[in-house]
Amino acid sequence: MSYKEEFVSTDAVISGKVITFVVPCYNSEPYMNHCIDSIIGAGRDIEIIIVDDGSTDGTGAKADTWAEKYPDIVRVIHQENTGHGGAIMAGLQAAKGRYFKVVDSDDWVNRTARDLLLARLRAFINSGTMADLVICNYVYEHVHSGTQKVMRFRGAIPMNQMVTWDQTGTFTVGQNILMHAAVYRTQVLLNARLTLPEHTNYVNNYFAYQPLPFVKSLYYLPVNFYRYFIGREDQSVNEQIMLGRLDQQMKITKMMVKEYSLPGDIESKHLADYMESFLALNVTVSSIFAVIRGDAEALKMRDELWADIRSHSPKLAKRLMRNPLVRSANVKTRVGRAAAMRTYKLARLLYRFN
Q1: Could you read off the pLDDT of 17-32 as tens digits, one per residue?
Q2: Hey, is 135 helix, strand or coil?
Q3: What long-range pairs does 9-12 form, CB within 8 A, spacing at least 24?
Q4: What integer is the mean pLDDT of 299-325?
Q5: How many CA atoms does the CB half-sphere of 43 hold within 13 Å?
């Protein structure tokens, strides 16, 4: 049986669990308990799948302790290391919940917001009308400075009501539906045949992006649910690590390019506009980090990214270049590179993403 054939399912065969929380773990022993403890207590109709992704510390033993204590809620998958994407996919393959949420092991959730989210998901299931994508606020938790930045979706998505893409408004630069904000109906991910690459960082963006054309209904619950930890030096969003993993950032951006359809080729113009805006931001980030590195290999990767974009759609390349952020990150002069650096520093100051 092929991977994609195995992934065909229906809501009817998914168990009575309301939601599956997948917690990918790699050498997470020092902080994983805080994450799992923030999810436990949401009810017996949830499940938590801890994926021990080839850890070499005590992560696996801690995961087993949680499963022994909560056998009807916690399951553990021990596997050889496959990276963040591989760990998420292992959780998705095993998921029994009607909804699906990834919580990284160094992050956590707000318990009050968690209970409000679960109440809404249960109401969806009981009514027989389920939103395909539930969106909550998320919070950048800058632990060393003690500061926070709440990312909200007011103005972009009507609050506390089920809507279609055509009922959404304009998403600003800081209102991208990242993985931290997204709670997908599990069947949507299966229908989209979501496949994340192994041993690749920055799959979060692809996870949030690729299934969007399969989303027919959205619901914005304006609670500060997901707490996104910023502060570890080995974190993938650390600037120096991002520079070293530029090839992986480029790989994910190229994958996103292949998933984009021009307005007119997609059911909703609002959806097409949002996907183009989100793609433009990722192209900008990839391009800016190539400029920051500045070496021949990095600049070649930027050129190869644009070759991929033009190959996929010359029209898309022209549309992206009309975006001021994209344009400023891709001017091939010293002045242009300085402008790209200013754009990056301003975005970092405003959105505090690393």
Answers
A1: 999 999 999 999 999 9
A2: strand
A3: 9/187, 9/190, 10/187, 11/98, 11/130, 11/185, 11/186, 11/187
A4: 94
A5: 17
pLDDT at 1 over 70: no
Residues in the chain: 354
| Three-class SS state of 150 | strand
Residues 6 or more apart whose CB falls under 8 angstroms from that of 261 comprise 213, 272, 275
Half-sphere exposure of 309 (CA within 13 A, CB side): 26
DSSP 145: T
* Predicted local confidence at residue 125, as pLDDT: 97
Classified as helix, coil or strand, 346 is: helix
Residue-wise pLDDT for 149-174, tens only, equals 899 999 999 999 999 999 999 999 88
Type of residue numbered 52:
D
The alpha carbon of residue 133 and the mean position of all alpha carbons in its chain are separated, in whole angstroms, by: 13
Query: Do 180 and 152 meet the contact criterion of CB atoms below 8 Å apart?
Result: no
Q: What span, in angstroms and rounded, lies between the C-alpha atoms of 38 and 276?
A: 35
Distance, in Å, from the CA atom of 42 to the CA atom of 115, rounded to the nearest integer, reads: 6
DSSP letter (8 states) at residue 165: G
Q: d(Cα 19, Cα 202) in Å, to the nearest integer?
A: 24
| List of residues 6+ apart from 35 with CB closer than 8 A | 23, 28, 103, 104, 105, 106, 107, 108
CB 286 within 8 A of CB 250: yes
Instruction: Look at 146 and 38; give whichever has higher pLDDT.
Output: 38
pTM: 0.91
